[in-house]
Amino acid sequence: xxxxxxxxxxxxxxxxxxxxxxxxxxxxxxxxxxxxxxxxxxxxxxxxxxxxxxxxxxxxxxxxxxxxxxxxxxxxxxxxxxxxxxxxxxxxxxxxxxxxxxxxxxxxxxxxxxxxxxxxxxxxxxxxxxxxxxxxxxxxxxxxxxxxxxxxxxxx
Length: 156
Prior knowledge:
Elements (H helix, E strand, L loop, with lengths): L1 E6 L16 H16 L6 E4 L3 H13 L6 E3 L9 H7 L6 E5 L3 H11 L14 E8 L5 E9 L5
Parallel strand pairs: 1-4, 2-3, 2-4
Antiparallel strand pairs: 1-5, 5-6
Helix pairs in contact: 1-2, 3-4
């Protein structure tokens, strides 16, 4: 089973749009990546987001593209400066969840899950990009997480 972490699509700057919805570029890039995920037959049991408009819009695009029967949920604890350690304790490795969130939280979560340190940078997210984490049983019943694959709108 996998955990799919997505940084929301490109959103309008604070001064331009109070709701900070996705820009046209943000919608297009998110739709493109979501369709690539569909072609790879990504199967999710749950799609969750922070409740912020840009994350909700991104989650809906993935939900539509993946034709997911999975519910879309708002979850707490994944805002930009939230505690990754606390959130990590709530992750169910066998759930196949797609989580749409924000930086620096998403980047710090990947670092913490894969290295045990939220400060060790192991991956640079891009807006609309996906990081697929998988897990295996570690010593003493612990869960060992690793990056299985990533999809990004830009390769430069």
